[in-house]
Amino acid sequence: MRGRSGFGHGRQRRGWHMLKPTLLFLMHKGATHGYDLLEQLKEYEISEIDPSLVYRAMREMEVEGMVTSTWDEKDTQGPPRRMYNLTPFGDRILQEYLNDLRNTRNHIDRLIDDYEQHMKHGNGDFHNG
């Protein structure tokens, strides 16, 4: 039943809606390689997403002008790796994401508070109609 409601579409999608803002934040902290971004996403519980989706998101953000990338040939023991950097435009988009997240958090908090108040006043019976 959860799948029909829009929730619980499997672990692969868990965290997908937070992927871009989290990537932008991680690059806000400093330029980094794609592999390092994949590792850092785990700190934000975005570890079940296929790495190819992460790299696709990075390419999309690069096309949109939020990030730039260059080949890093010095700081690697193997083949060159892409180094990703946040652009000023990407920083503005990050700020917009954060404002939207704050507004969403406020909405969620209000809904939860209202529901809990509703339940405290003996309105816990389910009424359909």
Brief overview:
By secondary structure, the chain is mainly alpha-helical.
Describe the structure.
The protein has helices spanning about 1-5, 20-30, 35-40, 50-65, 90-120; strands at about 30-35, 65-70, 80-85. The protein has about 130 residues and is mainly α. It has one domain (about 5-120): Orthogonal Bundle (Arc Repressor Mutant, subunit A). The chain has a 3-stranded antiparallel beta sheet with strand order 1-3-2. β2 and β3 (about 80-85) form a beta hairpin. The two termini are about 20 Å apart. The model is unreliable at about 1-15 (pLDDT under 50).
Q: Any descriptors?
A:
Arc Repressor Mutant, subunit A; 129 residues; mainly alpha; 3 strands; 5 helices
Query: If strands are numbered along the chain, what order do they take across the biggest sheet?
Result: 1-3-2
Count the domains. Answer: 1
Shape: elongated
Q: Distance between the terminal alpha carbons, to the nearest Å?
A: 20 Å
Which stretches of 5+ consecutive residues score pLDDT under 50?
1-13
Q: Residue-averaged pLDDT, rounded? A: 84
Kindly provide the name of the CATH class.
Mainly Alpha
- Which fold does the CATH topology refer to? Arc Repressor Mutant, subunit A
Quick one: CATH superfamily? Winged helix-like DNA-binding domain superfamily/Winged helix DNA-binding domain
Strand content: 5-15%
